[in-house]
């Protein structure tokens, strides 16, 4: 779920990406459950640190979909282990004004999960703590300093000439700068396999074929078995940032992305830069697709008023026919359903050519930092160090050993039956672990320093349980086999690669410079206008109104300072193109 970092963009539940079309193993934290709940308030996991006094850490968190105290099993876990309580402040819940108000006061919080651009604003005004010396003494974070943290911080040379470590990038993988490890692209066409087969599995050559297939499915499958209305396409506004997110991400299907740190341009793998409001932009093409869909009665009438949480409910109930983000499958797909041929799967469209960022070797657009006024920074560092330890990563990604997963005789891990459905079912957690529902109690931090594409030293496999050998074996279901036989590939990523339908580009995470107050003001006005007009165009009464709104958008944004903002974004995109070239050359 952006900034979006690329994987965890706006408001995401973090969980496993629901391997292929199967396991919806979601999770919240991870570790060896034998260690859970055993520490006391005066325990000393770090050595020399006094935990006898309770500590509440104020977490200013752009990634969080939740505001308030962390409760449930994860809350109990860190309370027992560190005598820490997390109080989470979420701009996604409270609104963007929260950042402006708190940064103006000079104290954003204790632990900060913020965008790269905000980091650039806060370092020069003394609101970020220098962690260089503190990280040297950590057990786990120190292992990643040279390959990941120093290179990232060094990119902020204009405000950090000494290369100090002010921040730790998020979702860092430990593979390589050009590797893509996931079995499906982040954004690609995904649909319910049984419904698609039910209309004869028509070949999809283009978006027109997709719309016709969705119409056929809608007519054949108007309601779920429980009587809930099925909608072919559902949209939501609360992820919209520089532009309309549901448009931005479908642009990836045709090779164009909107780089983080920009809002007025799209970029392809060759380095071509296209203005968002160009008549030939992919942004316009996808707006036209959604408009056409709405004219055919395919767009959810709740789209303009619902939020992501409502969409998540519909995904859980299999009420949506077209999914576009890999982890959306996790709300419904399970191994049990897969054995019946039931689940959401990739359904490639022949004329697509996807742009896909590689693993986030250098991180993903957001950072963990410590506020300069934080009390007890040594305890915050200790907590962050634990987050990247094998125990901390297992809790975050896989829950409790013995509850969500178990160790097999070969030393590797295997999901329990509970672990396969704990997220979707919000399975009750045993009282010894804190009680409540599993999903309710997951980590509300909702982002990671090191990602689940890091190898667990105990098992030799990724922390991401979708890629455990046991899960892959369990996932050889009817659904998986039928898909593989149909597309002659083991995974969607392999299919797209074999058919030359994907460009994997290095995932660049760097300093792109922060906006001046003038540019920031212009960008904000333009973004609001682009978003509002995009929604109006999709729901326009006819093509004439659609075209009129587009032409007005193109001319009006010029008066809002478009030329100044696009000049800045073009410069940033050119930097990304150069860094991608350098990353490929370094391999």
TrEMBL record:
Family matches, as Gene3D superfamilies: Periplasmic binding protein-like II (3.40.190.10)
Region forming the signal peptide: 1-35
InterPro entries: Bact_solute-bd_prot1, SBP
Source superkingdom: Bacteria
A Pfam cross-reference name: SBP_bac_1
Keywords assigned by UniProt, alphabetized: Cell membrane, Lipoprotein, Membrane, Palmitate, Signal
SUPFAM superfamilies, alphabetized: Periplasmic binding protein-like II
PANTHER family from the UniProt entry: ARABINOSE-BINDING PROTEIN-RELATED, POLYGALACTURONAN_RHAMNOGALACTURONAN-BINDING PROTEIN YTCQ
Stated name of the protein: ABC transporter substrate-binding protein
Phylogenetic lineage: Bacteria, Bacillati, Bacillota, Bacilli, Bacillales
């Amino acid at each position: 779920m952006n900034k979006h970092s690329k994987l965890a963009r706006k408001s995401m539940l973090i969980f496993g990406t629901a391997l292929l079309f199967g396991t919806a193993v979601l999770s919240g934290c991870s570790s060896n459950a034998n260690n859970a709940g055993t520490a006391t308030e005066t325990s000393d996991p770090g050595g020399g640190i006094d935990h006898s006094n309770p500590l509440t850490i104020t977490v200013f968190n752009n990634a969080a979909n939740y505001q308030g105290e962390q409760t449930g099993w994860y809350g109990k876990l860190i309370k027992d282990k560190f005598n820490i309580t997390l109080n989470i402040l979420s701009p996604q819940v409270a609104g963007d004004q929260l950042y402006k108000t708190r940064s103006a006061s000079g104290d954003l919080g204790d632990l900060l999960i913020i965008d790269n651009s905000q980091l650039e604003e806060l370092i020069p005004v003394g609101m970020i703590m220098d962690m260089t010396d503190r990280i040297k003494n950590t057990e786990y974070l120190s292992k990643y300093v040279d390959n990941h943290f120093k290179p990232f911080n060094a990119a902020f040379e204009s405000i950090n000439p000494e290369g100090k470590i002010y921040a730790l990038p998020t979702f860092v993988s430990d593979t390589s700068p050009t590797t893509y490890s996931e079995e499906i692209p982040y954004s690609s066409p995904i649909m319910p396999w049984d419904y698609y087969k039910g209309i004869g599995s028509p070949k999809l050559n283009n978006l027109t074929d997709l719309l016709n297939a969705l119409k056929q499915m809608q007519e054949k499958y108007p309601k779920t078995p429980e009587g809930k209305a099925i909608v072919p396409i559902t949209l939501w506004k609360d992820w919209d940032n520089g532009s309309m997110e549901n448009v931005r991400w479908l642009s990836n299907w045709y090779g164009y992305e909107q780089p983080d740190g920009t809002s007025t341009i799209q970029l392809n793998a060759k380095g071509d830069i296209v203005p968002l409001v160009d008549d030939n932009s992919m942004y316009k093409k996808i707006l036209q697709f959604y408009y056409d869909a709405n004219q055919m009665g395919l767009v959810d009438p709740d789209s303009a008023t619902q939020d992501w949480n409502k969409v998540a409910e519909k995904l859980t109930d299999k009420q949506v026919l077209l999914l576009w983000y890999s982890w959306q499958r996790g709300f419904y797909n399970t191994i049990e359903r897969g054995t019946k041929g039931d689940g959401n799967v990739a359904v490639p469209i022949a004329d697509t050519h996807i742009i896909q960022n590689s693993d986030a070797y250098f991180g993903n657009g957001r950072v963990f930092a410590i506020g300069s006024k934080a009390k007890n920074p040594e305890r915050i560092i200790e907590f962050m160090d634990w987050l990247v330890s094998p125990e901390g990563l297992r809790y975050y990604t896989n829950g409790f050993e013995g509850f969500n997963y178990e160790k097999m005789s070969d030393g590797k891990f295997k999901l329990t039956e509970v672990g396969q459905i704990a997220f979707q079912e919000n399975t009750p957690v045993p009282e010894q672990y804190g009680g409540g529902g599993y999903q309710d109690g997951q980590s509300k931090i909702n982002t990671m320093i090191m990602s689940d594409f890091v190898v667990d030293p105990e098992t030799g496999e990724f922390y991401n349980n979708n890629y455990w050998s046991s899960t892959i074996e369990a996932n050889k279901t009817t659904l998986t086999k039928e898909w593989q036989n149909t597309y002659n590939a083991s995974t969607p990523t392999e299919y797209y690669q074999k058919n030359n339908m994907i460009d994997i580009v290095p995932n660049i995470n760097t300093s792109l410079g922060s906006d001046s107050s003038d540019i920031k003001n212009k960008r904000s006005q333009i973004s609001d206008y682009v978003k509002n007009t995009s929604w109006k165009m999709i729901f326009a009464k006819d093509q004439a109104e659609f075209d009129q709104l587009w032409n007005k958008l193109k001319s009006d944004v010029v008066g809002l300072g478009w030329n100044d903002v696009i000049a800045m974004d073009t410069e940033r995109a050119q930097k990304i193109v150069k860094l991608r070239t350098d990353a490929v050359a370094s391999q």
